Amino acid sequence: MYFLDYIGLSGYDDELIAELLTGVAAACVENGCALIGGETASLPGIYHGDDYDLVGFIVGRVKREDLLRPESTAAGDALLALPSSGLHTNGYSLVRSIFDTDNDPSALRDILPRGRETLGEALLQPHKSYLQQLQPVLGKVKSLGHITGGSFAKNVPRALAPNVGAALDASTWSPPPVFAYIQEHGSIEDEEMFNVFNMGVGMIVCVAASDVEFLLTKLGDAWVIGEATGYDGTGQRVEWRV
Length: 242
Fold this sequence. Notes:
phosphoribosylamine-glycine ligase activity
């Protein structure tokens, strides 16, 4: 329905504010909601120099019968993956620590393997919106797991009934080059990578096994990443198969 924003900064900067609001307005148009207002606060005691906060929230509505149904998930359901556009909004503190970008931003100009994209360009990729892709098929979707903070271990269970777990197969996709570059330079173990970053997966879609082919056709770039399993409350709820 509508979006409200908050911009906090050390002092009013009309050019910056206009640039931010232009981007917010464009995103609202893309996602079918209206930017109806917000707040801009000059707080020099909190923000310093070029620091600023951009925060917002969306208010929407949905018919009760159209709500997603995590409680309807069951062992044997298929788990589909939709690709992310990059890191989305998680793992940046670790990246800044690995490359010490606060003191030396030169690493942001490094060219990533298998392409011409720099590290900085990869890190600046906007968080992907899945609305247009998912909206036409929501009637076939039981639940969605948005892979954000805590990655797979924290977010996949939120999309499942209490007695349901997940078996995911890491061999079903190749993470984008930026993740391997971060892992190599930070000497990070695989387990930590998959607990911090989305590794190229932005959304998990839980569907009945009988609807897999239909969903794969409609979603375009989705793939089967695993399946729902029975869970008795002990052990790892999200397991990896390689």
